[in-house]
Amino acid sequence: MLDIALLRRDPERVRESARRRGQDSAFVDRVLELDETRRRALTALEALKAEKNALTASIARAADRGAAARELRPQIAALDARIEEAASAPPVIDAQIAAILGDVPNVLDPSVPPGAGSDDNVVLRSWGEPRAFDFVPKPHWELGETLGIIDFERAAKLSGSRFSILKGAGVRLQRAIAGFFLDRAAHNGYTELGVPYLVSRTTMWSTGQLSKFADAMFSDPSVEMFMIPTAEVPLTAYHKDEILTAALLPLQYCSHTACFRKEAGAAGKDTRGLIRQHQFEKVELVWLTPAERSLDDLDRLTAHAEGLLQELGLPYRTMLLCSADVGFNSAKTFDLEVWLPSDGGGYREISSCSSCTDFQARRSNIRFRRDAKAKPEFVHTLNGSGLAVGRTLLAVLENYQRADGGIDLPAALVPFAGFDVIAADGSAVRS
RNA sequence: GGAGAGGUGGCAGAGUGGUCGAAUGCACUCGCUUGGAAAGCGAGCAUACCGCAAGGUAUCGGGAGUUCGAAUCUCCCCCUCUCCGCCA
Predict the structure, then answer these.
(1) DSSP conformation letters of A307-372
(2) Class of A118-429 in CATH
């Protein structure tokens, strides 16, 4: 949520950000108008309340309270009527402002390049050479089915489309990937949390997933619980309603969770394979940090995610998302796209690293004090995948496939997997 | 699911109808003291909103009510804890 003070102080900055996102900026004037009305109504109401409080206090001070109360009752009753009338407006206006502001995306960082869509994202850097194959590389779903380590058919039988069942070496490899990510996260200073996969409506709202994205999430309305679309939600909201001390910052958390998404808007896209599933695993990295460190720490977080791809020897490129492609919560986002050799080759998103500035912290009410006497300030929240586990699995399968259909594991995964080859018959082999 | 207890400032914990935004302790900040430190002493120390300011308004889990007046009384809801039941 934006600070309404920012709209008062610098409305043009908010308008410009909205325009750069390709969105209507008319809400700025609407909110400012409501705000003006609200303040006038509030001042009037508070004056009446002050008047009443003064009368009440005089009763408390009177020698004979009963007599004083009887004497002042008509005056107070008259004030009560005016107060009741004056009190009706502010909450209504507050709700109107909150409803508008709650659906306004974060203000973009100045360094975000202009653009109209994902084609305008900027390639910042590339790492690694895509491997030259002396055979036609297969897509991972073919590899997985041939090896007998991914079973889409039976998953569809159990749950429908966009589900998969990993088996044997496949699920062991997935577990190794997650273990590798968590191990590196620990080395990079992240504290691992085992978090709930179901969270309340309030929590979802406080990290910006609601109310705009309710359609994208699985939920149980009977208990008002939502299945997390990413561990960003519980990790970011972990310190909800807390006032932290500056010495604690920056805080770094990571978690390996399943994630659940309806993918309602992606009908017909990526219908084959592991790319787009209703349920997938991810290791998420989250920072809480002071404003002045926000962008530097975003670079650190991104470097941590990139380091994983480098250790795995997976070629990737780092994209700076353009103004139209930056998500609702984010002020600035880097996407990491991993090289997939199948289908002629191409880059696919495997991590998205964002600074949400104080946008989520304001919704979550997460603050800190610079020193004992300082006023609490909102922290900045950063998040990024480190990395998407399912997509890493398919990237490993495709990039490390052999002509015979077997897979050579990248060296970094071997200690976590306990094997270094998936043989052509699907068996895990330690050579 | 049943029964009970409880939710007060950064923390602990008083407060059961008025002068209570809230005792006290801890933590923290500043000062005195000291060669320095500890102890001791003194002062300060919740949040949000409105206002140039003085100041005002609201907030004791959330909401509604009683009352001239509610942290305190009533009702509803939420959460936590304990015991019982059930269960991976």
Answers:
(1) HHHHHHT--EEEEE--TTTS-SS-SEEEEEEEEE-STT-EEEEEEEEEE-TTHHHHHHT-EEESST
(2) alpha beta
Give me A179's structure tokens: 């273990």
How do residues A117-170 score in pLDDT, each as one tens digit? Answer: 999 999 999 999 999 999 999 999 999 999 999 999 999 999 988 999 999 999
> What are the residue boundaries of the structural domains of chain A, listed by start?
4-102, 118-429
Fill in the amino acid letter for A260: F
| Model confidence pLDDT, tens digit, residues A352-370 | 999 999 999 888 888 888 8
Residue A69 corresponds to which tokens in the numbers above? 């109360």
Give the nucleotide at minimum CA-to-C1' distance from A372: B28
Whole-angstrom distance, CA of residue A198 vs CA of residue A219 = 9
Structure tokens at A5: 């003070």
Tell me which nucleotides of strand B come within 7 A of a protein CB: 10, 18-19, 28-29, 44-45, 47-51, 56-58, 68-69
- Centre a 10 Å sphere on the Cβ of residue A300 and count the other Cβ atoms it contains: 18
The torsion region of residue A328 among left (phi > 0), alpha (psi -120 to 50) and beta comes to: alpha
Pairing type for strands A428-429 and A421-422 reads: antiparallel
Structure tokens at A278: 């209703």
What is the residue whose two structure tokens read 């009560």? A80
- Which class in CATH covers the domain with range A4-102? mainly alpha
Are the beta carbons of A428 and A422 closer than 8 angstroms?
Answer: yes
Closest residue (CA) to C1' of nucleotide B47 is A376
